[in-house]
Amino acid sequence: MSSSHPDASLHPHATGLAAKLVSAHSSPSPSPGIPTLYSGWFCPFVQRAWLTLEEKHIPYTYVEVNPYHKPQSLLSLNPRGLVPTLGVPTITTTTSSSSSSGPSTKPLFESNVICEYLDEVYSDKAVHGPSLFPPDAYEKARVKIWIDFITSRIIPAYHRFLQCQDTGSELDKLRSEFHGHLKTWIREADPVGPFFSGAQFSMPDIALAPWAVRLWVFDHFKKGGLGIPDKGQGGGEDEGVWERWRKWVEAVEGRESVKGTMSERGYYVEIYRRYAEGRAMSELAKAVRAGKGVP
User: Fold this and answer.
1) pLDDT tens, residue by residue, 83-125
2) What average pLDDT score do residues 234-240 get?
3) Are 60 and 37 contacting, i.e. CB atoms less than 8 angstroms apart?
4) 115 CB-side CA count, 13 A
5) Is-contact 232 246, C-beta < 8 A?
6) Which helix (H) or strand (E) covers residue 107, if one does?
7) CA atoms of 295 and 111, how far apart (whole Å)
8) Cβ count near 280 (within 10 Å)
9) In which element (H, E) is residue 37 found?
10) Alpha-carbon distance 40 to 46, whole Å?
11) Portion of the chain with pLDDT greater than 70, in percent
12) How far apart are CA 241 and CA 237, in angstroms?
């Protein structure tokens, strides 16, 4: 894609704590035998996969990608050139046309798919800790419903709210819609927490955490801000719901993996300014303007 693309002038690399992680996992070329995360430091969908790699203590190679200047190494795995893309190490077998075997790489994309794959494949508890899904089949299926709710309801509502150019009733309507989806989701969480499924940080938390730590954008860019009431400040009949939400957000914001995969806030401001001013040309921004969901 041409460098004239309006979103192409991204800061080229992670900063702050995220930069330390990138440095620890960077390599001039993908390392054989371990997955490669093709990433954009700014992208919340990437952060889902990155969090899973960190939480599961999985060795990986990090490759920074500007999605508006797609390298051939990424396009050869994912012709759409989207991040995150995971390069999955495999072993090729000898065939009639080849007399040797060796390492090869297969692609995976879609953030939730990548996260579930990593959790399933890296399942040795002694090395990678417990599964990020509940062991009970019904509970696993149930949390998948609420993971899907994040992608199908919460994220589109987040962007409709952020990308709204009205400063009056339409903005208030979209703020209320976003609040409603957050309340619906947190009502399904374990009542004690602090995380969605209880004491353990798990896949529903990973699925929503990247947007939870970006809620500040509404106070920064939107008239009236995020609008979630502080404790004792007008929650009304929803006070208990909002208290549970605040508890969850505080726990997520304090998680080491979440803090470690975030760059310094100032570098996100210009990215989200484009969304707030209706100028962003990402696939998600365009889909939201067209009244669609996450592409």
Assistant:
1) 999 999 986 544 444 444 445 889 999 999 999 999 999 999 9
2) 84
3) yes
4) 25
5) no
6) strand 103-109
7) 12
8) 21
9) strand 36-39
10) 7
11) 92
12) 8
Length of the chain: 295
Order of all β-strands in the sheet with 85-91: 61-64, 36-39, 85-91, 103-109
**Which pLDDT score is estimated for 160?**
98
* Amino acid at site 59: P
Q: How many CA atoms lie within 13 A of 107 on its CB side?
A: 16
Q: Tell how far CA 123 is from the center of its chain.
A: 22
CA distance 217 to 272: 7
> What is the pLDDT, as a whole number, of residue 233?
82
d(CA 42, CA 47): 8
> Which amino acid, residue 217?
V
What is the distance between the alpha carbons of residues 283 and 165, in angstroms, rounded to a whole number? 19
Single-letter residue type at 288 = V
91 forms bridges with which residues in the sheet?
103
Tokens 């996100």 -> residue: 268
CA dihedral 85, 40, 13, 57 (to 10 degrees): -60
pLDDT averaged over every residue in the chain: 92
Using CA atoms, how far apart are residues 17 and 263, in angstroms rounded to an integer? 6
Assigned token pair, 98? 């080849």
Determine contact, residues 25/54, Cβ cutoff 8 Å. no
User: Are 162 and 149 a contacting pair, CB within 8 Å?
Assistant: no
269: tokens are 């401001």
Q: Give the position of tokens 């399942």.
A: 123
Q: For 260, what's the count of Cα atoms within 13 Å in the CB-facing half-sphere?
A: 15
